[in-house]
Amino acid sequence: MAESINLAVSTVIFALRPHPDTQHPVLWLPLVRRVRSPHKGLWALPGGPLGSTEDLAASARRNLHETTQLTPRYLEQLYAFGRPDRSDDRTVSIVYWALVHADVASAGVESDNVRWFLADELPKLAFDHSQIVEYALWRLRNKMEYSRIAAALLGETFTLSELREVHEVVLERTLDPANFRRQIESTGQVVATEQFRTGGRHRPARLYRHDHSIELADNGPLTGR
Amino acid sequence: MAESINLAVSTVIFALRPHPDTQHPVLWLPLVRRVRSPHKGLWALPGGPLGSTEDLAASARRNLHETTQLTPRYLEQLYAFGRPDRSDDRTVSIVYWALVHADVASAGVESDNVRWFLADELPKLAFDHSQIVEYALWRLRNKMEYSRIAAALLGETFTLSELREVHEVVLERTLDPANFRRQIESTGQVVATEQFRTGGRHRPARLYRHDHSIELADNGPLTGR
DNA sequence: TCAAAAGTGTTTGGTCTACACCCATGG
DNA sequence: CCATGGGTGTAGACCAAACACTTTTGA
């Protein structure tokens, strides 16, 4: 009986890029257009069947790279979706969520069947993928509060204002700059450099980088906790 | 390629029962003895292949009932384990964890191939099941702090001391009775009854019950959040 | 009347928040 | 020299731990 069940791995990929109108950074995610039934023509999460000798996370990483040419800065298992009615062909999907650093260049890999969308302006998605994205957004917002995954959305160095802006976009609320600074500094997740960002009509901001001595991603229960 | 991958659902089941020596309540969990290769004779988590029209949680619930004759008071997806080397036959296991209320009577369903073990005195387990149990314990302890799953380990009514004892056993540390009382009362997850537990050489303790108007288990992302 | 646990009150130390304020720069 | 954001200081609100204390029972 089990031989009729398909197993797939899909990934919700988030990146921070400017809003086309406001130029303010907002969350984007890439989708692929289905070229086969069912749900042919609808947009869906990137993913596919698990390779017979492939690890789950490796499958997610591979799909992510094939879709976006990118390597995730953060990758974590989200949930296994298995309701019998979620697809016609009885597929259980193990879903990961990822953060990538998508600059303008990497946006060039878009094609007719791969496109980046604003996270809050998604089209109708295939299967239960809309619910999956909702859940991934919920997890992202929750994790943001006690983790430093915002790091994965920025470059190697950044000002505290830039880091705060990431938090504000993800959490959808403004944060007090003074308190945010203290909060970040107290965790020690970030280290000051001797460089400064100049150019604004104001005092230059010190650049920081992440403390790479601490692991970033939660790679699941098997990698020491 | 995907057709060679097996999909199984397993469950880590926790219950609170007295320690055989001290009579103090401690965590127990039931295991089943493998009757087939590989790992024949070793103890393993209850589980089995997913039914072709069965929901993941339903499969966990079914296995749990077949093993212990019990119905879970709490059931939540834990993680999907899929390392290629975790079994010889390339099985991906979607693991749930559950809390049950196991009284002495239900312990009677033990047999040669089903036995309850102290959670901190487990034998060598088949496959990667030892790591899975470790992870489930970690999740239990984490969730305890901000949830009321302790409820699922107790009967319909209980004193605050009993509830505190559950927390203390799971978290492996003592808690201040006064602060614990305030903390629990402030959440409103528990409501006072007009009954009291008498019999000790001390002032009778008021019995409480859980507020059933609030959902208990986290049934995943698809059931409203 | 005493031991033991139930239950209450109070102090205290830390953390979070709001906001006033100074600093350094580009224009 | 002034507008702008970088960065610091600080008072009040809030919260949780510690612990002294009172209450009520069974023996």
UniProtKB/TrEMBL annotation, chains A, B:
InterPro entries: NUDIX_hydrolase-like_dom_sf, NUDIX_hydrolase_dom, WH-like_DNA-bd_sf, WH_DNA-bd_sf, WHD_NrtR. PROSITE patterns: NUDIX. SUPFAM superfamilies: Nudix, Winged helix' DNA-binding domain. Residues 4-141 form the Nudix hydrolase domain. CDD domains: NUDIX_NadM_like (cd18873). It comes from the Bacteria. Pfam families: NUDIX (PF00293), WHD_NrtR (PF21906). Signal peptide: none annotated. This is ADP-ribose pyrophosphatase YjhB (NUDIX family). The lineage of its organism: Bacteria, Bacillati, Actinomycetota, Actinomycetes, Micrococcales.
